[in-house]
Structures are given as structure tokens and as C-alpha cells.
């Protein structure tokens, strides 16, 4: 059994390692499109290029690193089988390519992992073990099984062969869009940013490298800058919700001078919704983090030629529906109005008449007679409605208020 090397003693991959990885995995992963978005470019005021890694077979870039790693195992290591800890994209990547190569795969996932992700991973032929409440718990268990069963551990990001595989993305990006002067890349454990950073700097030494983390999980920013910020909470970008980044990746990003920026949840939601609406492409929260950074601070990128990676498309359909509806609320297309009225015959008809006059469609109506601070003779009528634009909602509010009704609009913020 090979001894596991500490990350601090491992040298980062070189551009030659990344080029070799590209040759190694060619034909077994999708060479995804790299396209300029005219609409997003106009919105942000920059030339925006998107690398559609959500179009990989498992809908994420993780296939590149996983395959590069698996292809370099010895026959003896392949026979022993591999193990990984993951709640999502890395699990599916290792499982899928492990099955293709005839390598037994075991994946340890937290008990809380959504059933769909467990099922998809098992569908690729992997044995799934549910353990613990977090990926950290699953990681510890996987390492225990590595020692007990003799498996080869496949790290999700802190591994030079994994990093080299992810770096192949940059080769394709700069081949398809050689004029890029800035790369904005999501950061979780740091594997994709490390690989892309090494390759991009080798090809274009002056290129600007910006990494993006969810505001709730600033672990890499703190690792590089030496800050101390809280890390945790529910984020749409669960794919980059990492409390402890890699040792090797942290060293690489610091040496590369990567600037790490944080994005708010509302910008992540907005980015996911815009990619559906504008690019007709489903992208998970982590995959949309680069665009979210641009939307949150467009002046930072004004006039630049910016490339970002839509690194994954594995988002729960119910969650995606919530994000899209919430975006319509923020755009003013959908609203919930609380209308105070006397509880008497004709009150509801008078209210709905104003919606008809304004051309606003009523989705749902709810009466609240008990849980209200209004007098007992009054009621609150909640109306959820949709309109062609925000101005139409404003119009119905004015009509209601002109008719003597008190109107309160629900807000997401």
C-alpha cells in the first residue's frame, strides 16, 4: 500500500502535467462549449464568456480530475478499489468513471444527502455508505475504511492529479477565447481554481485570477488572507460550502495571488435564475457563483474580457422552482399583497375588481380573520398575484389605496 503524502510535501502540478491530463482524458469527457453571452455582457458591461461544464455527462466538471486520477492508478490499486467522501458531484464523477474502467467504487455520503444524489451515485455502480451529518464526518469514515479495507482514497480537491485534471478546463477556455484577461472561478476546496490558475498563468502570465466563495463559507479567503470569519449556514451554493479548504490548494492559490471575493445569497439566486432565463441553461448555485460575483459588483469587471465556469448543473428541481419564483418576486412580476378590509359582503369583489382593472392576475387568495391586529369586524385578505411587469403591480396597489384599502406588500429582504 502506498503511504499517503501530506499535502504540504506535495508539489503542485505543472502546465505539462495539465497538458498530459488533457491528452489522457480526451474523448472520455465532453469538450464543453465556451460561448460569449451577448445579453450578460450588456448587463454587466464586460465581455462575458461562459464555459458550460454543466453539460458533462454527470453535469459537473469533477469528471476531469476524477478520471485523470483513476487512469493513473496501478493495476494493483485498481483491483483494490477506490473510496471517496462526497455529497454530490465528486461522488458521481468517481462512480461513473470507476464503473467505465472496471474499478470497484465505494462512496461515503452524509446521512442528510438528498435521496436523488444517493440514487444517482448508486446508479453509476458505486456502493454507497451513509454516515454522519456532514461531509467532514463522511471524510473521516472514508479514511477509516481506506485503512481497514485497503481502498485507494480519491480526494475531492487536495490532490495534484485531481488538480491537473481540473486545469484542463483552462486550456479549452483560452483556446476558444484567447483574448480573456480575467477569470472568475468558484472556490470550494480550491481544486478547480488551482488547476485553472496554474494553466492560465502559464499561458497568459498577466491574466487576472478571481476566486469566488459563498459569503457564508469564506474559508479559502481566510486561509489565504489570514482572517478569521465565521463559516456555516444554509447556502444555495452547497457545492462550494467548504469549512476547511485543502492545504495544497490553499498554498497554490496564495502563490498565484488569487483574489477571493464573497457573494451574497441573493446574487447567487439571481445568477441561477438569469442563466435559466437568458442562456436557457440549468446551473446549480455553486456553478453560478462566478456570474453572481459579476452581478454583485459589475463595476469591478467593466470593460474586461471575463471568463467563468458554469461548473455544475445538479440542482434539485423543487429548489430551482423556488429560486425562479423568488426571482420573479424580486423583479416585481409576482407579489403578495396584504389588504385590510371590512369583513362584509362585497369587500372581496371590490378588491378583485381593482386587480381586473389593472390587468393583474390573481394566483391565490387567503382570508385571515383571527390572527390579525385589526378590529374583530375587519379582515386581512392576502392576494398572491402576477403581472406582465412591476409597473402593473404598482398600478393595482395605487387603485386599491385610492379605493380606501390599506395595502402592505410582502418582501423577501
From TrEMBL:
EC number from the UniProt entry: 4.3.1.19
Catalytic activity: L-serine = pyruvate + NH4(+)
EC top class, as a word: lyase
Keywords: Lyase, Pyridoxal phosphate
Source taxon at top rank: Bacteria
Cofactor(s) essential for the protein: pyridoxal 5'-phosphate
Stored Pfam families: ACT, PALP
InterPro entries: ACT_dom (IPR002912), ACT_ThrD-II-like (IPR044561), Ser/Thr_Dehydratase (IPR050147), Thr_deHydtase_catblc (IPR005789), TrpB-like_PALP (IPR001926), TrpB-like_PALP_sf (IPR036052)
GO MF annotations, alphabetized: threonine deaminase activity
Record-annotated ACT domain positions: 336-413
Family statement drawn from the similarity comment of this UniProt entry: Belongs to the serine/threonine dehydratase family.
Name this protein carries in UniProt: Threonine ammonia-lyase
Native organism taxonomy: Bacteria, Pseudomonadati, Pseudomonadota, Alphaproteobacteria, Sphingomonadales
